[in-house]
Amino acid sequence: MEGKSDVEIIEEYTELLGSHESLYRRKTLLAGVEERDLSYFNFIGQNKCRKTVVGLFGFGGAGKTSLVKLLGSRSTIQATRECLSTETPYEAERRCTIHVHPTTVFLQRKNGISHIMTLLDTPGHADLIPETIKTLEQVDTVVMVLDICRDLSLQYELLFGAIEASKKPLIVVFNKMDLIGKEGIAVAASRIKYLRDIIEAYLNPRCWFVSSFKESKLSKLDTTIGRLIEEYVDDFDSFIERIISKEPITHGDRDKMECLTGFLWVGGVLLCSLVPKTDIGVGFQVEVYGTTLTIERLYLPFPGCLVKTQQIQSKIGVLAKFPEDMLQKVVIPGFQRDPRLMKEVLKRKGVEYGNPEFLEVEDPLVRVQVSPDNEDHFSLGTWKLRLMYPSLKIDGKILYGDGELFMDTVLYDLRNSLGIKFEVLSVSSNLKEIFGVSFTEEVDTGRGLVVVKGGPTRTMGKIHDFGAVEKRILDRGLLAKDPFVHSYLEVSPVSEEVELECLKRLENSVIGHVSLLEPLYLVEIVYTSDSEDLVNEVITSSFGEIISRKPSPFNELKNILCYIPVPESFGFETDLRVYSCSRADCVKIPFYWRPVADKDRTHRLARFIRKAKRPEP
Q1: What is the CATH number of domain 363-430?
Q2: Among 6-10, 120-124, 158-162, 213-217, which stretch is predicted with the lowest mean pLDDT?
Q3: Which residues belong to any copy of the Tr-type G domain (predicted)?
Q4: Which of 248, 173, 175, 168 minimizes the C-alpha distance to 203?
């Protein structure tokens, strides 16, 4: 009966709008897929050798999503009419991929054998690198899509290191060959050789392709560049065969929750994206990060549509709906950057940095304080944000995240998807406090002298057993009221109960040894020669520090590598583009935390944070 109805009850309330229609809404229609097609799909899904999970990686509009659509156009199961998409309103509006989107394509190979391919379209912005790298654990084959007209940026180098560590087979596609033109054949050949040399220094790709997804063209890179541009042999069949590897893939011993690729807000419902390790179905129980959940609905994400199904075989991408009361109990650990990858990139670039232990400070960079119109509604909605954005940290009315685009996405979904109205009170950088040097102080508490010792910890894995007084001081901070990191404190002798006046004397005795830690962006700026003075001015005004300069090998563009303190970075990209009249652009990657050396900046940052944290009257 459910399949024949086109409405569903959404609220069990009385007539709020004075009409029975207020209790209902029309269902989002799903594609009318023939039952025989699904039966054959399920039959093929029982064969482990005829299923492949493919991760598509690339940045800056390289063409990943276009490749998904191109492969989807060859699927024998497609939408018969326009219907529900997993693309969020923010992604559609900004034309960028924020979440990992699964698409299942049912392909008929050249030899007539059918094959199921799950495509995982990954985020393409530097703020979302941890989520992108995490997806490598789920895939059998990696497809890297590169824009032939752009140089490789810092984020690619981080991704190369992660792919190398994963040992997954790699296929490289040089896209946007249509922008080269016949007159640029020599330049195209030089660029491809240049990019191949860089990639092969890290990786050993299985094969190479050149493409123009705009023109639906894809050719294997085993002939001359000139012939490829002039003729463009259709090698999609060869591309698919290369993806479908016969080589054994070792994933290691992963538990059930490792099949999770993320949560998506689709049509007003929170769906979990899975690539299950075992066959599952409606009513089955699966474990998601330690919480056992019962599947209420399953949807197959075919190209352009979602198709409801009762069961699905292992190793096929699917979207699952779970009971919301159980979902609220799920806690997803944040996807943190691996400092080893950053260290390798810096080593190859010859970049020297300060104390290496500060690379381990992994807390989010940006903090946004909001004032919701309805605090209860806000509290009820934040658990959904935690699932959709695992690296988001929520502390009361303060949201923490890695980067401006990331936080812009979170706030957009908070307002538009979850319907929570709010006012942004402040946007600032996250800060930490640390004891810069070791010290010993004698303090008169009014009840006798005590000895206070403190300093930075030198061993990352060392665990200190702090007393109640020490923990209280370190947790609330002294300058900006932010927690201490990599620091120890010892007060002796002291009782567990300390009066407020005594505590203030202890804090005043050590505050002179406290330094603020601020996060840094490692920024790569590409600009034209005539905008160099403007670029330098923007860097200086943001308290930036230039590390290196170099020209581009194929055009008149130049490249600057620099540090920009995150507290001074808000609006940096906009200023760079506006003041240079779009002749400069940049990529920002969270780098590491560094003590603020300038005393004026230290006091300014501390005052701002304390003011932002001041309780409302």
Answers
A1: 3.30.70.870
A2: 6-10
A3: 57-221
A4: 168
